[in-house]
Design goal:
three-stranded mixed beta sheet; alpha/beta; globular
Length: 482
């Protein structure tokens, strides 16, 4: 009996040894795959870039986005992550924006969102859920400490889904932003699972086109939304979490004979309208009345923006504005379905949703999650140059010819370290990214010591890989820098 027991043990041990040896061989440099350890960023850059140019696959072992949590000094963190530290145009300087971001989890996802929307002339207020873990709060604090124009809300809420606390979180940040020294023109509210589909300049141009009007998409309440403000709702907290429950108690009529509208919680508001919301009695009374309604952030903004005479109001507006690309579970006929999964009726995007997002005119998309899948695994092929070509046609072509002064300006914008906002989208792990920049722009080929295009590309292209679910900030970045 003992003999067979020893045989079984020896066989098991031998099997484990063989498996480990075989697995290690698959990761050895002699094979087509290499383990890229995030502890050595320089090694990652060199290896990933060489593999990309030689059309070899790269095995991404860990997330390589450096974080202040890893004791990286702020200066190094900004450089390594290619933050934009200087404004990219006079137009953007003259039209600073403000952002409100409400988060409670997934620091890595928030970190990518913040990097994508950050510009030095803007202002950023981040509301961290009071219930969030201490480690998460500290991570956010460390990140924002690297930026003079970004801060955590001075007052935080314990946010309950569909409760008044979600709206109050936005309002807390708005109070802080009004007191900031940044002369912002519009404020945009976001959550940690948003991601921009446009550059900062494109967002500015879109908002300037609104000519001082607030963007609060919405309509009169459809049948399914009427009970949200018709009956009293109560917040409940249990071991499994917090939630809002409907009662059979009828609510009183809205204050000041306001007509309640139903719309999106995500809006773009002028500074004048924000001051109205914070100080006008109609807004204050509506906020008080809304405290026992369901998801008040989906009627508060849109209702006030329909009041005639209010700064930037649009009494006759509807579902317009193109602020968010969202796939709702009850609207699959219009968007073709969700390739990820639904949470609270909203699609958490998968790789198969990329084509739909590429074609979206919206400024932002919602919702994303940080996942361990990269773009070169996508079932939807995305051409590396799709966004470059679109922007080049708009910025560089004059009557079919490239205007040299414009070409020079765009080269300046793209090539210096960090000046890549909005161009870091849907990039495949291939040499096409660098080629697109060189061949389309015909920019200077770099320092003389680099004799060939391939050497120049190896020296200039940093391929940043992160284990995300969308865009270059979450997939692969192709950055060209001096």
């Amino acid at each position: 009996m003992n003999f067979w027991r020893y045989c079984f043990f020896a066989f098991t041990l031998l099997s484990v040894v063989i498996f480990v040896r075989f697995y290690s061989s698959q990761l050895s440099p002699s094979k087509s795959y290499e383990k890229l350890n995030s502890s050595s960023e320089r090694y990652f850059r060199k290896t990933a870039c060489n593999h990309a140019l030689e059309k070899k696959p790269v095995f991404l072992w860990e997330n390589i986005l450096p974080s202040p949590l890893r004791s990286v000094p702020c200066k190094d963190y900004l450089t390594q992550n290619h933050y934009i530290t200087n404004p990219l145009s006079e137009e953007e300087v003259a039209f600073p924006l403000a952002y409100v971001t409400v988060i409670h989890k997934d620091f890595d996802t928030f970190e990518r969102l913040f990097r994508a929307i950050y510009m030095p002339q803007n202002a950023y207020c981040v509301h961290v859920d009071e219930k969030a873990p201490a480690e998460f709060k500290e991570s956010v604090r460390q990140l924002l400490s690297c930026f003079q124009n970004a801060f955590i809300a001075s007052k935080t809420e314990s946010v309950v889904y569909a409760g008044i606390s979600r709206l109050q979180a936005d309002l807390n940040c708005l109070k802080d932003l009004v007191a900031s020294e940044v002369p912002w023109k519009y404020v945009i509210n976001t959550c940690g699972q948003d991601f921009p589909l446009k550059t900062n300049r494109e967002i500015v141009q879109h908002l300037k086109g609104s000519k001082g009007k607030n963007i609060t998409p919405g309509v009169l309440p459809p049948d399914h939304a009427i009970k949200r403000t018709k009956y009293v709702h109560q917040e409940h907290t249990e071991k499994g979490g917090s939630f809002v429950k409907t009662t059979n108690i009828l609510k009183t009529s809205p204050p000041h004979q306001l007509t309640i509208y139903f719309g999106t919680a995500y809006v773009a508001l002028t500074r004048e309208f924000v001051n109205f919301v914070l100080h006008d009695k109609r807004a204050i009374d509506l906020l008080q009345w809304s405290k026992d309604t369901y998801s008040p952030d989906e009627h508060f903004w849109v209702t006030l923006n329909r009041v005639s005479g209010v700064p930037g109001s649009m009494p006759n507006a509807s579902w317009t504005g193109n602020l968010r690309a969202i796939k709702w579970s009850d609207m699959e006929d219009s968007h073709g379905g969700c390739h990820g999964h639904y949470v609270h009726g909203i699609c958490i995007y998968g790789n198969g949703d990329l084509k739909w997002l590429v074609n979206s005119p919206s400024l932002f998309a919602n919702k994303f999650e940080h996942r361990e899948r990269t773009l070169n695994q996508s079932e939807t092929a995305i051409q590396p140059s799709w966004y470059f070509e679109q922007l080049f046609r708009e910025l560089l072509m004059t009557e079919g010819k490239v205007a040299s002064w414009k070409r020079s300006a765009v080269c300046e914008r793209l090539l210096p370290s960090g000046n890549v906002n909005g161009f870091r989208t849907f990039i495949r792990l291939s040499r096409n990214c660098g080629d697109t920049l060189i061949d389309t722009l015909k920019c200077p080929t770099g320092p003389r010591e680099h004799n060939t295009k391939q050497e120049w590309l190896r020296a200039r292209v940093n391929l940043w890989a992160s284990l995300g679910s969308f865009s270059s900030c979450c997939f692969l970045d192709c950055h060209v820098q001096y």
